[in-house]
Design brief:
mainly alpha, two-stranded antiparallel ribbon, globular, disordered N terminus
Amino acid sequence: MGVVKRREQRTAVSTTSPTSSSSSSPKQQQQQQGVRTKKWEDLDDADIPSLVELKRALPAESFKSELSTSLYYAARDLVFAGTLLLAVQWLDSLLLGSALHSLRYVLWPTYWFLQGTVFWGLFVVAHDCGHGSFSPNQRLNDCIGTVLNALILVPYMSWRLSHRHHHKNTGCLDKDEVYRPFREHERPSVIQHGYFGLGITWPIYLFHGYATPRSHFNWNDPMFIKHKIGTMASVAGVASMAFVLYKWEQRIGLAAFAMLYVVPYFVFAMYLMLTTFLHHTEVDTPWYGVDSWTYVKGNLSSVDRDYGWLVNELAHNIGTHQVHHLFPIIPHYKLVKTTEVFRAKFPHLVRKSDERILPAFVRMFNIFSKQCVIPEDVQHFAYKENE
């Protein structure tokens, strides 16, 4: 009984009755009243609404970005990052040589955690730019996204394009961009299979790709060639930031530079790889072959996760992932309320986990490591707890 209870807590499909609404369509009412007690694996295509039906059930306001609000969050993250950078140096100078110098062992890990999380938040704002949810003006989005991503050494345009490929193929066994299972002929390398929880493979992914070899710094790659100018500008932005960082390191020394920037960078990279993995890897979460995959089914396979109040706030509630994947045009600051509506109207479609993040990662990484290679002819796959 204890094992079953813990498993239910990990990935819960809500079965509570939604709030009744006279505006619900007969199909939605049927889904809410009759389908919600089905297990996910028992759902068939008739139980799953179309993308249009899902959109109609959500508030129209959710799909409207507000430039002033988006700019506020971008500015807030930049202020937070700058404030943390100055504060940690000031506090360290006060503690160094004082009777309280041992507090530096608390100060620096706290700074690394907070600054890495703020870097992650900056990435999420640039992520909105890539999806067109920062503002209605895509040219402005691309300019701001290029700058924000350059600060954390991410080539914005090429990442935007590979990430779009991920959204267009989420949950597809043969086409998804990252962390999909491997066919037997695609035996994973150490890079693909290994220590992404430490953040090491984020820069490796940018230079090497995942299942398909691809460098995000190669503007002649077939995925990026139609946006060659934008990709070149993004690479130039990263190169410019790298030069600034080099000059900074020359001035303050390697040790200080590592403590102020490199460690937070790898905390951010750890967040990025760990959360991407957990949002798309869970027991009984389905993956589909090309013939049975659809956009709605694939993106409904995303899993919502809770990172705790502080991380949720600093990382702009990126854990509300199902709705984001279905409708990436929704700005991050409208995801929570939209998710509440989605869960009320479509409880049978909800995938969310309340398990603590690090235990969830360790558990799923072990399962992934053992089960991620699948036969060539499999057209429907899900990880299992004890196989």
